[in-house]
Amino acid sequence: MMHELIIAGFGGQGVMSMGQWLTSAGMKEGKYVTWLPSYGPEQRGGTANVSVVISDDPVGSPVVTKPMITVVLNNPSFDKFEPKVKPGGYLFINSSLVERTSKRTDIEVVEIPATEIANELGNTKVANSVILGSLLENTHLLSEQTLRDTIVDSLSGKNDLVQLNLAAFEEGKGYSNMVNA
């Protein structure tokens, strides 16, 4: 089975980290993976997105044009990628920052106030981990334990960040209410 994802937001929101954690966890599970970043023309604070493919079979191309799973962390990303989600796919929205709602009835939409949750935990930079918790809870894309281990490995030596990201991940798991379900 092949899963194609796009994660999009502003630089500094953890877009690339989310993609790296997913691909690293996929590799740990023996999957074939690709990670293809794309940056906007701005130097800092501009838009960024990453295409991720996780598959049981070799991947022919890292380019994702019609993702089954899409994460949008800001309004420009919603405008660009919401129409591209495959029918039957998932759209995860950081509802703390995205002011729009999807009108599509052919996809599963999960709105998560990720930045608010992260702020309550003490650091808005872990909003990406909140979203990842919800993404895994809803899609079962990878093993939860494998992703937790990947977060721990990637933040090795930064125990306070490990604990904060794992707490954010756990909070995100509670968001599985599908808006259009």
Topology, number of strands: 6
Approximate shape:
globular
Mean pLDDT across the residues is 93
Give the helices and strands as they follow along the chain.
Answer: EHEEEHEEHHHH
Calculate the terminal CA-CA distance, rounded to whole Å: 24 Å
Q: Which regions are unreliable across 5 or more consecutive residues at pLDDT < 50?
A: none
- Measured on Cα atoms, how large is the radius of gyration? 15 Å
**What structural category do the secondary elements indicate?**
alpha/beta
- Indicate the proportion of strand residues: 15-25%
Quick gist of this model?
This protein is α/β, with parallel strands linked by helices. It contains six helices and six strands, in the order E-H-E-E-E-H-E-E-H-H-H-H.
Which structural traits does this protein have?
181 residues; alpha/beta; six-stranded mixed sheet; 6 helices; globular
Please provide a written account of the structure.
The protein is α/β, with parallel strands linked by helices. It contains six helices and six strands; from the N terminus they run E-H-E-E-E-H-E-E-H-H-H-H. It has a six-stranded mixed β-sheet with strand order 2-3-1-4-5-6, with helices on both faces. Helix 3 crosses helix 6. The longest helix has 14 residues. The model has no long low-confidence stretch (mean pLDDT 93).
